[in-house]
Design brief:
single chain; 206 residues; mainly beta; 11-stranded antiparallel β-sheet; 4-stranded antiparallel β-sheet
């Protein structure tokens, strides 16, 4: 089990806009092994408080608009792997499923004629992953043990792969929709690194 709090900021100077996000989260992880079969699962939920500010500027016009609203995000995943050893080399083919969810509450910006209102939105996406992990160990000349590791997986996104939202100009009531950046339906996920058992300071990734 783990819990915590984070604060993040984002600024887009070209758009004269910024956002500040406070997040409290709670997560749990567990696993079990039955012979060569390894099972892992976990879940996390986070509560976000979001504050945004933007400037609306074009010739002969200037306004500032801001909003403050909340959101909840969560994810659940499960994975099964089969561990195999070949001398000093360990290989684990694995397959996993994950579900990611985001619920954003409605908000109304404070500002002038350019202020927007947004209805609440719910978006979720699913991921399937199929891949393999590799790890080994090598005794280097100074007597230390070097343990390189790597993984390569194919990941497929399905469900709502493009986030959507509905906005309205508060001054006129004119509605319009927006689309987020589409999550690529298929992609490769790669990870590699090395570890030395001397201590945490000797662990690294590339």
């Amino acid at each position: 089990m783990v819990g915590g709090y984070t604060n993040a900021s984002a600024n887009v100077s070209a758009r004269a806009s910024s956002a500040h996000i406070d997040t409290a989260y709670f997560a749990g992880y567990g696993g079990a092994s039955f012979g060569a079969l390894n099972f892992r699962s976990g879940a996390a939920v986070a509560w976000h408080t979001i504050g945004t500010s933007r400037s609306i500027i074009f010739p002969g016009f200037f306004e500032q608009a801001s909003a403050r609203y909340s959101a909840i995000s969560g994810q659940v995943f499960g994975e099964v792997g089969y561990g195999m050893s070949f001398g000093s080399v360990a290989i684990e083919p694995f397959a996993g499923l994950a579900w990611v969810y985001l619920n954003t509450e409605s908000f109304n910006e404070t500002g002038g004629v350019g202020a927007l209102g947004a209805s609440s939105t719910q978006n979720d996406v699913n991921y399937s992953t199929l891949g393999a992990r590799w790890a080994s160990n090598y005794l280097i000349p100074n007597g230390m043990m070097l343990m390189p590791r790597a993984s390569l997986a194919w990941q497929h996104a399905f469900g709502t792969v493009t986030a959507t939202g509905a906005l309205t100009f508060q001054n006129t009531g004119a509605p319009f929709g927006i689309l987020g950046v589409s999550d690529r339906a298929r992609r490769r996920a790669r990870r590699s690194g090395w570890r030395s058992p001397v201590g945490p300071a000797d662990e690294g990734r590339r």
